[in-house]
Amino acid sequence: MAGKVQKKRDDLRAKLIDFAEVRIKSGGIADIRARDLAKEAGCAVGAIYNVFGDMNDLIMAVNARTFKRVGTQVSAAVEAQPPGHPVHTMIAMSHAYLHFARDNTPAWRTLFDLEVSTEGAVPNWYLEELQKLFTLIADPLRRIFPDMPAEDVELMTRGLFSAVHGIVLLGLEKRISAVPADKLEHMITLVFSHLTSTPSEK
Amino acid sequence: MAGKVQKKRDDLRAKLIDFAEVRIKSGGIADIRARDLAKEAGCAVGAIYNVFGDMNDLIMAVNARTFKRVGTQVSAAVEAQPPGHPVHTMIAMSHAYLHFARDNTPAWRTLFDLEVSTEGAVPNWYLEELQKLFTLIADPLRRIFPDMPAEDVELMTRGLFSAVHGIVLLGLEKRISAVPADKLEHMITLVFSHLTSTPSEK
After folding, report:
1. Domain range annotation of chain A
2. Which residues of B touch A161 (CB under 8 A)?
3. Which residues of A34-48 are buried (b: 16+ CB within 10 A; e: fewer)?
4. Which of B119, B160, B179 faces A158 most closely, judged by CB atoms?
5. pLDDT in tens, B90-144
6. Residues A2-193, CATH architecture
């Protein structure tokens, strides 16, 4: 009996994530309304809150899927590169991130639109998904900077992710950095192709 | 007579920008409501729209002041650096940008929160203010990369601004890149200290 209730609950959960994902893919976070989702899933609004603590939890579940898709695309770019050229690998990964953001803008924006009030509130499975992405960056970075202390590699991994994110964000928003979309790839290449293991003398 | 009307209009304009600036400094774009500003300025709501096309125009006027303050702080950081060390200058500028964003978060966020629908809608004086900031970056960049074509210097200027913006944005939001605030300076230093004029062999 308890198993049956649990199965019903799991089914509703999966269904709600599916519906929310479709909406987030097309319109982003603004398209997520409990009333609409309840209608679509054929349940009461209250039933949603039995399955998810709040709408943020539901959006987080969709974001986890989006992060997985980012990871898959970035991994594929890494694998398509010949080994032994970590700078090229970093550039290819950054381009893959740009292409993902360009082709999946509403879902990608939702990764960053969600209010995350405190670090403690972020679920572990979310941080694990993120960690996988950082590992993809840290690997070539360690090969570019073989003598860099582990702590600095970790910091630079997050720094470079944030840097590429900034280029993609301002670039796609055609905002401050107002650069034609076809120049964004070259912009990323320029920044990365001058990263070298020798600290600059200047 | 016309002069008197114009003066009254100019006074109201200046007063509204002052009031809006106080609100944006404390609470960002969410604190800007026409009704509240009208009350504060002792005018009708309609009078605001006689002076500014819409609330976005008013926020743009405040953003222009904020950009000027960013520029002043970044310029001061450049001037405090000994000449002949363009990489150090770039790092000092980036740190100054981080400090500005950290100490003026609501106003800084408002620079990017405003919807800018098309490039054509951005007023010239706004783009000029932005151009001044880019010039500050392009100068040391040209000294680091003396042989880089002018077009690439321009692209890299915007790329590096976006990169630093990304680091500051994700860093201050304690979001994806979740790095302790006191490590953000070091993160920026790490990224920039490995920028060299020799393209990486890796």
Report:
1. 2-193
2. 170, 176-177
3. beebbeebebeeeeb
4. B179
5. 999 999 999 999 999 999 999 888 765 444 567 777 778 788 889 999 999 998 8
6. Orthogonal Bundle (1.10)
